[in-house]
Amino acid sequence: MNDTISTLGDIVRTHAHERGDRRALVAGDRSWTYDELYTDSCRAANALATAGVGSGDRVAFLDRNVPEYFAFLYGTAMLNAATVSVNWRLAAPEMNWILDNAEAKVLLIGAEFLGHLAQMSLTTVTTVVVVGDPGDSGYATWEQFCATASTSDPQVECGRDDTCYQLYTSGTTGLPKGVELTNRNMFGMLPVTADEWQMDADTVNLVAMPLFHIAGSGYAVAGMYFGAETILMREVDPVEILAAIPEHRVTNALFVPAVLQFLQAVPGADSTDFSSMRQVVYGASPITSEVLLGAMNLMGCEFVQVYGLTETTGAVTILQHADHDPGGPRAHLLRSAGRPWGDVEIRIVDAETGADLPDGEVGEIWIRSQQNMKGYWANPEATAAAFPDGVDANGLGWFRSGDAGYLSDGYVYIHDRVKDMIVSGGENIYPAEVENCLMSHPDIADVAVIGVPDDRWGESVLAIVVPAAGADPSDDDIIAFARERIATYKCPRAVARIVALPRNPSGKILKTELREPYWAGRDRRVN
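RESULT FIELD:
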């Protein structure tokens, strides 16, 4: 790829020069060429500078997927500042905490979230800019904010180890942490996607995942890095996604498994013209074989699975399309998350002793790569815990993922979050293994497995199931089904039912929320 691109700002600089007339971004009935996006980004940079934003500062974005985000992102990068994308699904106090923690100076906010803003008491934000109609709030619109700003490129020097993104972890346990991602992190990963994700200048990339998530903003930037055209969806709407694919001749997309399931449920989905599609990337949460096979049959293009974290700038492993062999001799690989890509190294470590574990033994996944974050913003203790052996002069160190898994023939198999592990009678139980078993039950549509207090065993296994439509499997039937397939000590001792499992925007089950009724009032959440 073009070696003139080493920072986020370079993306629009380079493509405005090399392919300025190429369409960069489409959102609804609006579109931008790379030259227009570069001009808007320069104007945004100068407006932000006038508002007091300088090198190393933070600015924040709080809205659904809107095209203004990209001029804001690239303009911020041109000042060597960092963009903080805030989860718009949070409650106002949670948003408030993130904005204050990030020490954001400027907030770009969607008009529909001004009610949330009214509930906040922000300590560092000095300028608020609104996407849409600000009503009687008194705040400037995005257009007004940028209107008189210069379109010259500020040409602020940006270092490879300077932070350009700051994304916050979901905070399903404790307060969220600000993940600092640098130019080195981003551009250590992006070139790898040329072959692995079939990205090039002819790509038409559909972005539907939320921009506050690495699977949204990071994936969008991956396409733009190559000069691709980005089709931005305001939010996940399966009907609109299916309409956009043939309309824009979309070639590439990233979806979480839940979205792949939703797409298949749209009436008439099988009549959609998918002939333009090259590849679908999927990941961020477990997928059932039924959902995967259904999506592959529906779309008829290549599918690749990825595993990664916000802290690793997204994907660090890939299960290539050649490894998707349902019903064949390599079908077992579909249970894996693939092999490390790029410069990524992976170890499986005993979380207690720090010793490396042999193939097949479950331990904590440790990762070393240029993609590993710089650290957690203003949280040296958490950063030190994440890199127990520190980092070398090149910024490389072993990152503790907090995920449990094992290696086999170079492939990574994910078991669960280490913190979700159930200890029952001295035995370690990984909920994902039990969930994978129960998801093959024909009368179960969805399931989550958690540990609940048990006076005898410390913890016991509870399966919380969503019955399939029209089905009502008994507790005994579900438990017996599991006992036929996995070790007895791993099997649920009880079953609960729920209409729908709570999930965060990336599709991960909110286990903390499910555990709360069972552990309420206890000082310790493990026995």
